[in-house]
Design goal:
Elements (H helix, E strand, L loop, with lengths): L1 H52 L2 H8 L1 E3 L9 E2 L2 H8 L2 H31 L6 H13 L2 H14 L4 H26 L4 H8 L4 H30 L2 H5 L8 H9 L5 H23 L11
Antiparallel strand pairs: 1-2
Length: 295
């Protein structure tokens, strides 16, 4: 009897000691794995940042190079001739036109894409698949052929070139905004709106104080995509605009087609990269607009 009792006590003591040792033993590999994953994320982020930043190094050097020829690795003479040439070619006016055009396209295409995505995700539209195909058809069609065909229609309808460029770019941007917002609405819970209406909120109050704040990050991403469509466009502005609307991509292409304009092209190219990077920084922090997500 004494032997069996002592064996039970020994087994209980070993089990208690094992249970006390488990958190430390289990926690150490877990913390080590988290540390390895964090190091891997930091390393991969640094490598990707370096990969995307390296192509901009020659642009920065060319922007301040008055003369740079082979086989020299660095510019022989530094200066601001590139900036002067870019300003003389109308870079400021082209920058302003591109910015205004992109903002208008984003302001129109984002709400249209959101409404289309909500209707498609709620399956309230008849012939939803056909509507989806029509919405995404601008991405599937050959750009040059589509722009030429649309340009003929706009010319016969006496549509002003500036308005025609806006209309075509909005149509091009809607597939991107619709897809982005459709992903957001697939995860959206209509119970928030219903709860607000049950508590006595009006439809306008529920829209502005409940619905829009919850989808604000998705709206920011969609607006960013629409902005990029207008900001980087060359073909639509060239063909439909007919020279009436001169944007930054047109100035860059015109300068790049010449010889000896490398510094000017570098300045213009850098100026074309800065606004999207600034907007991307804001979009990456758009999660703070969501009141339901803690930072």
């Amino acid at each position: 009897m004494t032997l069996s009792t002592s064996n039970v006590d020994v087994d209980r003591a070993q089990r208690i000691q094992h249970e006390r040792r488990m958190p430390g033993d289990a926690g150490r590999p877990l913390s080590q794995s988290r540390g390895v994953m964090r190091t891997a994320r930091i390393g991969s982020t640094a490598l990707m940042s370096l990969w995307f930043a390296l192509p901009f190094l020659p642009l920065v050097l060319w922007s301040f190079a008055n003369s740079w020829s082979a086989p020299d690795l660095l510019p022989m003479t530094l200066g601001v001739d590139g900036l002067t040439a870019a300003l003389a070619n109308g870079a400021v006016a082209a920058f302003g036109d591109s910015l205004l055009l992109s903002l208008i396209v984003a302001a129109i295409a984002t709400p249209l894409g959101a409404m289309a995505a909500r209707a498609l995700s709620r399956r309230t539209l008849p012939f939803g698949r056909l509507v989806s195909v029509l919405l995404f058809s601008p991405v599937l069609l050959p750009p040059f052929a589509a722009v030429l065909g649309i340009n003929v229609v706009l010319l016969r309808a006496w549509v002003p070139p500036e308005l025609g460029v806006i209309l075509v770019l909005v149509v091009v941007a809607i597939p991107y905004t619709t897809f982005s917002m459709r992903v957001a609405y697939a995860a959206y819970d209509d119970g928030f709106d219903e709860a607000a209406r049950t508590l006595g909120a009006t439809s306008r109050f529920a829209l502005w104080r409940i619905h829009l704040p919850l989808i604000a990050p998705a709206l920011a991403r969609s607006a960013f995509l629409a902005f990029l469509v207008g900001w980087s466009d060359y073909l639509v502005t060239l063909v439909v605009g007919g020279g009436q609307l001169v944007t930054l991509p047109l100035i860059i292409a015109s300068s790049a087609s010449g010889i000896g304009n490398e510094s000017s092209v570098a300045v213009l190219s850098l100026s074309a990269v800065i606004p999207p990077l600034i907007l991307l920084a804001f979009v990456s922090r758009a999660r703070n607009l969501n009141p339901g997500k803690q930072s």
